[in-house]
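#lab-general

N.A. 3:47 PM
ok so I finally got the sequence cleaned up, no stray characters, all 241 residues accounted for. can someone with queue access submit it? mine expired

B.Y. 3:52 PM
send it over

N.A. 3:53 PM
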Amino acid sequence: MPEPLLQLEAVQTHIGPYHILHGVSFGVQTGSLTMLLGRNGAGKTTTLRTIMGLWRASAGRIRFDGRDITASATPDIARAGIAYVPESMGIFTDLTVRENIVLAARSGPIDSARLDWMLGLFPALRRFWNLPAGNLSGGQKQMLAIARAIAEPRRLLLVDEPTKGLAPVMVRSMIEAFKALKEAGETVLLVEQNFYAASALGDDVLIMDDGRIVHSGRMSDLVADQSLQQRLLGLSLDAHQ
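B.Y. 4:20 PM
back already:
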């Protein structure tokens, strides 16, 4: 196996008096879509925020493309090629869809071919291009948040629960968009609670519990093993179709 693009080695994170991550280790391969699953409070969001330097690892090491980024500042991590879409999305509701995306392209105007590709992933954004982002539905705001993250080419995309609270039709649209990102060769680490979406998208899967990785492997193997689903997640795929 080649060296992972992203590698966490025995990472621990404290937030104030709370010890959240307890020696988290895993790798994300270039070109893969890796699912990070687990119950609420397992440490998934903390893992993404620690990778981005928003919360500091208190022990362990984080390597990106062979470089140690454990102590790097968040802007430097972003400049290295990692984009983060938080669960809160963080869009500017008073700005138009166009202005939100223009602001995300820090290196200058977006290449027209890349813009067409992005709007092909999320056609609703084209329809609301010159309207305030606050007018969008929840699912459309999520699409805008992801589009902003890929306004410029990125080496790695971190996304926190993109289907949370979405209607089934929007979940299906989001699945199709991530399938297109996979086909384009993007590398994604995706936190998800919707097991149906996870099973449709994941190449690899990591499962967290109590701040630890308790399982890693191929997503297809987890989908095929309902007893493993029940043991690790307390669910089965059949219940979420």
